[in-house]
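Hello forum,

I keep getting stuck at the same step: I have a sequence, I want structure tokens, and every attempt I make locally crashes halfway through. Rather than fight my setup again tonight, could one of you with a working pipeline run this one for me? It's a single chain of 209 residues.
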Amino acid sequence: MEQFRPRLLKAAAQMSVELSDQQQDQLLQYLALFARWNSTYNLSAIRDPAQMLERHIIDSLSVVNLCGAGSLIDVGSGGGLPGIPLAIVYPARSITLLDSNGKKTRFLFQVINSLPLHNVQVVNERVEKFSVEQPFAGVVSRAFASVADMVDCSAHLLAPGGRFYAMKGRLPEDELSALPKGIMVEQVHRLSVPGCDAERHLILLSRTE
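Reply #2:
Ran it on my machine without issues. Output:
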């Protein structure tokens, strides 16, 4: 995967994301593991590692400077997106990867042991059944069907004053109009993802009470 280092560095620079040599190595090692395990564990419909770099890793790095501070849970993490790239960039930040698919969480355990990532916890559980004593400062998702579903299923995981971070393609006006009472759209960021012509957005939501 060394051939992808220049592309990774160029994209990171365009997004004002600084990567140390170790972080570059970890992201490329993650890409290699993702590509190797994908055919068996069905992590993504994308089979080409070059496209995985663009559509998964660089896409995840596009929200690095927008996901606040404090503990973070990636709900419906799947193959670890965006949680693994965020954990690599912020090694001092506690990040939990939550997914109900056993195969995918086995892959995530492999990743955090191989890299290694000491700031990551992997949980194999349905989001609505997962409970914590200490709620999270942020809830992020790249995979939920709708923003309203994400908020509804994971509201119990968010600490007072925390934020939801929903990664979406085109801005889903209909989904935002269907948000439950007590949830407001705080900000909408149109993401500029190098190499991606499609629309990408990050929606920040918070409680009004």
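The two ends are 47 Å apart (CA to CA). If your local run keeps crashing, start a new thread with the error log.
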